[in-house]
Amino acid sequence: MAEHTSDSAPFLSDDSESEAQDETRAEPQGGPLSGVSSRRSLLTVFILCYINLLNYMDRFTVAGVLPSIENYFEIDDSKSGLLQTVFICSYMFLAPCFGYLGDRYNRKYIMSVGIFFWSLVTLLSSFTPKQHFWALLLTRGLVGVGEASYSTIAPTIIADLYVKSERTNMLSIFYFAIPVGSGLGYIVGSQVSAAAHDWHWALRVTPGLGLLAVLLLLFVVKEPKRGAVEERSEEQLHHTSWTQDLQALRKNRSFVLSTFGFTAVAFVTGSLALWAPTFLLRAAIFSGERGPCEEQQCSSSESLIFGAITCVTGILGVASGVQVSRALRSRTQRADPLVCAAGLLLSAPFLYLAIVTAELSTVATYVFIFLGETFLSMNWAIVADILLYVVVPTRRSTAEALQIVVSHLLGDAGSPYLIGVVSDSLRREQSFLWQFRSLQLSLLLCSFIAVIGGGFFLATALFIETDRKRAENYDPSDNEPIVVPKSGRSTRVPVSSVLI
Question: Where is the protein situated, by its record's location annotation (predicted)?
């Protein structure tokens, strides 16, 4: 049976060298196992990457113009935080539905419908009148439909196109789009808003690009065969009920613990994504480097700089995380969760320093943000890879959906709103000093959560080997794993004998 993970060298037998060479061999005479040519597979990855970039660009366009939105609607921090929360909530609650559909039906059609709906609603949100803040909340909530249809399914398509080191490389490309798209959201949002002197225009950039994504999905992307690239038999691809899927995932300790670790990543990134540009602007106003917002338009410099930092740190973080993990795999089979833990634990002190030094030195603040975001970004591709190799193919979309629900429910669904509520509760008076100070104190929560997340990834390292092998040797016929020896016949052992 072929290994179904990206870099699986620690788990290979003595003839692992010959297996590794198989990855570079030409496609079999009967065509590729996935049913998709190598050229179209690569094109598919780039299209999925483009859509991923577009989704995150749209998500953080609002954050890039948040001070202007606050002035326009005359709202406080708690209501501002709701803009991100309503979006994440709809995205989170719809994810299981699309996860169920994605494991059973044509995935590119599901994504196409969701992205078309997302583009339409995003365009409608740009026409919200001043008296109806609730309408902006509603449309931003409906945008989550498109992301739910895409984020739960896209990684599973990549998993059905590539295995081993190729999968890791393609996931890296895919997840580069998250920080780069987020950074572009700040940049495009702030600069379009400044050029048009109206923040509404910032929300009118991505809908047209979304329609292009739909056309690319329909006419270029080809649906790959589930699990075929991993040489899974028909019996191994037998679908179980959704309830059985959930029960199996609940017992998968690596999946559960890494999901909680990723929840901490979502909490921190969600908080910083919405509030960092606003916090930096308030720090600049407090220190006298910037003047107060004039009428409905605020300075866009902080959003531009933060966006550029997010793009660069995302590329560096994702790339370094994958490379460090790959180098460590020759020494330990637990490299992936250990690198994720290190990323979170190292980001915590730098984020703390960025927050406490904001009023003293702008340069130091941006340096600490750069370092903190770089370490935080090390997790993206690795967490996705962990999920794909500890979960069997027929449960991956459901697993993606469940991870989305948990990580957003306990992470960035509530963190922007929570930061805003804490900020409002700490504010003693309506002055520039307390607008800055209250938000500064509330953002310190991010460093504490990052440390907790690092602990969950350390716990994941205890179970990763067993759960990975169980997924590789999965046989649904009797729910007992197949043990494949280096030579001789395959044997079966009771489940209890392989459990820790």
Answer: Lysosome membrane
Name the DSSP class of 36: S
> How buried is 345 (Cβ within 10 angstroms: 0-12 exposed, 13-18 middle, 19+ buried)?
middle
| CB within 8 Å of 470: residues ≥ 6 apart | 390, 481, 498
Instruction: Kindly state the tokens that stand for 152.
Output: 């739960």
Closest CA to 439 of 303, 271, 295, 288: 271
Q: Which residues lie below 8 Å from residue 251, measured CB to CB, with a gap of 6+?
A: none
Tell me the three state secondary structure of residue 6: strand
Cα–Cα–Cα angle for 109, 164, 259, rounded to 5 degrees? 70
Positive or negative, the CA dihedral 140, 153, 323, 459 is positive
State pTM to two decimals. 0.69
Q: What is the DSSP string of 361-374?
A: -HHHHHHHHHHHHH
Q: Which helix (H) or strand (E) holds 482?
A: strand 482-483
Domains in the chain, please, with CATH? 34-220+242-462 (1.20.1250.20)
User: pLDDT truncated to tens, each residue of the chain (500 aa)?
Assistant: 333 333 333 333 333 343 344 444 445 555 566 667 788 888 888 999 998 888 888 888 887 788 788 888 888 777 877 787 788 788 778 878 887 887 788 888 888 988 899 889 888 888 888 878 888 888 888 888 877 888 778 888 888 888 777 877 887 788 778 778 888 888 888 888 888 888 888 888 888 898 999 999 889 888 887 766 655 544 455 667 778 888 889 999 999 999 999 999 999 988 888 788 888 888 888 877 776 665 555 656 777 888 889 888 988 998 899 899 989 988 998 999 999 999 999 999 999 999 999 888 888 999 999 999 999 989 888 898 898 889 987 788 788 878 888 888 888 877 888 888 888 888 877 777 788 888 899 999 999 999 999 999 999 999 999 999 988 887 665 444 444 444 444 344 443 333 33
State the Cα–Cα distance between residues 133 and 258, nearest whole angstrom: 37
CB 382 within 8 A of CB 336: yes
3-state secondary structure (DSSP) of residue 485: coil
- State whether the Cα torsion 405-264-167-146 is positive or negative: positive
At 6, give phi and psi (nearest 5°): -70, -110
Alpha-carbon span 258 to 216, nearest angstrom: 33
Tokens representing 216? 């690319």
Query: Is the CB of residue 265 less than 8 Å from the CB of residue 290?
Result: no
Would you say 303 and 297 are in contact if contact means Cβ atoms under 8 Å apart?
no
In contact, 51 and 115? CB cutoff 8 Å = yes
